[in-house]
Amino acid sequence: MSLIPDYLSEYIDDIQPYCKGALGELQAQAYEENLPIIHNDVARLLAVLLEMVQPKRILEIGMAVGFSASFMCGYLQKGGHLVTIDRYPIMIEAAKENFKKMGVEDMVTMKIGHAEEVLAEMDDEFDFIFMDAAKGKYIEFLPHCLRMLRKGGLIVADDVLQDGRVAQKYEEIPRRQRTIHKRMNEFLETISNDPKLTSSILTIGDGVAVIRKRED
Ligand SMILES: C[S@@+](CC[C@H](N)C(=O)[O-])C[C@H]1O[C@@H](n2cnc3c(N)ncnc32)[C@H](O)[C@@H]1O
Q1: What confidence tier does 182 reach under pLDDT thresholds 50, 70, 90?
Q2: Distance from the CA of 134 to the center of ligand 1, in angstroms?
Q3: Domains in the chain: how many in total?
Q4: Residue 213 confidence class, pLDDT cut points 50, 70, 90
Q5: Ligand 1, closest atom to CA 115?
Q6: What's the CA gap between 17 and 137, in Å, rounded?
Q7: Ligand 1 atom closest to the CA of 114, numbered from 1
């Protein structure tokens, strides 16, 4: 489901290029098989932001089959590196294969485990962080991401509008979705009101938040 009218999302989808070569094949296969990878319009947004930041160090939370990680490797500066986290062994095996196919295996470090635990153990510095896992935990990931993000760096968080449910009243949300609804609202309120951050919430894909760390 798109957050904007169908005619507009179809127009945007038609006009914006998809990935080419091996990455394009992985992208097409993933859409065909309903594997959980980023929307093409989110990839376009990442491309623009990554060209602006020119990162040497990228952190990704939520690797799946390695599509967005491989895509972002294309924007790393010379000698740059990407660290990506996932907890599912089946995803990790597929991602390993894909990193080899894309020729980026030497640029990527995979960390296996629950992101909340992995992040707590990490103490690196990053220029760019992409959050794309466990949407109910973004509020938990945020302090770790801000701790490791350099001043002036960007965090991009995917799927923050949850098919629009995030804007509904708490009482209207089915019980099983209430925790994620509450936590996502907390996340969006935090990034919108923290004076050390500049942020914007966009209706691209299923909602993307772009957050810049202005001050330490
Ligand atoms: C939407 S997919 C990531 C897609 C990927 N970024 C891409 O576009 O190619 C989300 C991934 O997050 C992983 N995940 C979910 N909860 C997690 C958690 N708490 N810790 C680590 N990984 C998690 C899932 O296994 C899944 O592979």
Answers
A1: very high
A2: 7
A3: 1
A4: very high
A5: 20
A6: 32
A7: 20
CATH code of 66's domain: 3.40.50.150
98 in a domain, yes or no?
yes
- Residue 115 near ligand 1, beta carbon < 6 Å: yes
Which residues form the domain of 94? Answer: 6-213
Residues 99, 149: Cα–Cα separation, whole Å: 25
1 part of a folded domain: no
Q: Determine whether the shortest distance from the Cβ of 19 to ligand 1 is under 6 A.
A: no
Ligand 1 site, residue 87, Cβ cutoff 6 A: yes
Express each pLDDT in 25-50 by its tens digit: 999 999 999 999 999 999 999 999 99
Closest CA to 107 of 150, 72, 153, 146: 72
Residue 86: Cβ-neighbour burial (10 angstroms; 0-12, 13-18, 19+): buried
* pTM for the predicted model, two decimal places: 0.97
Q: In this structure, what token pair is assigned to residue 29? A: 């296969």
Q: How far is the CA of 107 from the centre of ligand 1 (A)?
A: 19
Residues 132-151: what's their mean pLDDT? Answer: 97
**Do 127 and 55 meet the contact criterion of CB atoms below 8 Å apart?**
yes
Ligand 1 close to Cβ of residue 85 (< 6 A): yes
